[in-house]
Amino acid sequence: KGVFKGDKKGILEKIEMTLLEADMGPQTVVDIMEELKNNAEGLRDYDLLSKQLASQISRILQGSERELSPEKGSIILVMGVNGVGKTTTVAKLAHYLISERKMKVSLAAGDTYRAAAVEQLAQWANKLDIKLYSQQAGADPGSVIFDAVRSFQQRGDSDILIVDTGGRIHTNENLINQFTKIQRVIEKAAGKAADERILIIDGTTGQNALNQIDIFKKNSEPTGLIITKMDGTAKGGILVQSFRKFSIPVLFMGTGERFEDLAPFKITAYLEKIF
Amino acid sequence: NLKERLRNTFAKLQGKRLTASYVEEVLREVRVALLEADVHYKVASSFIKNVKELATGEKILASLTPYQQIIDIVYQEFVKVMGETAVELAPVKGKLTVFEIVGLQGSGKTTHTAKLAHHFQSAGFKVLTVSVDVYRPAAIEQLKILCNNNGLENFDHSGSKPVKIAKKAYDHAKKNGYDILIIDTAGRLHIDDAMMKEALAIKKTAESNEIILVVDSMAGQDAANVAREFNELLNITGSILTKLDSDTRGGAALSVRAISDAPLLFAGTGEHIADMEVFHPDRMAQRILG
Ligand SMILES: Nc1nc2c(ncn2[C@@H]2O[C@H](COP(=O)(O)OP(=O)(O)OP(=O)(O)O)[C@@H](O)[C@H]2O)c(=O)[nH]1
Ligand SMILES: Nc1nc2c(ncn2[C@@H]2O[C@H](COP(=O)(O)OP(=O)(O)OP(=O)(O)O)[C@@H](O)[C@H]2O)c(=O)[nH]1
Ligand SMILES: [Mg+2]
Ligand SMILES: [Mg+2]
Question: A116: which of A6, A54, B73, B215 lies 20 to 30 Å off by Cα?
Answer without folding.
Answer: B215
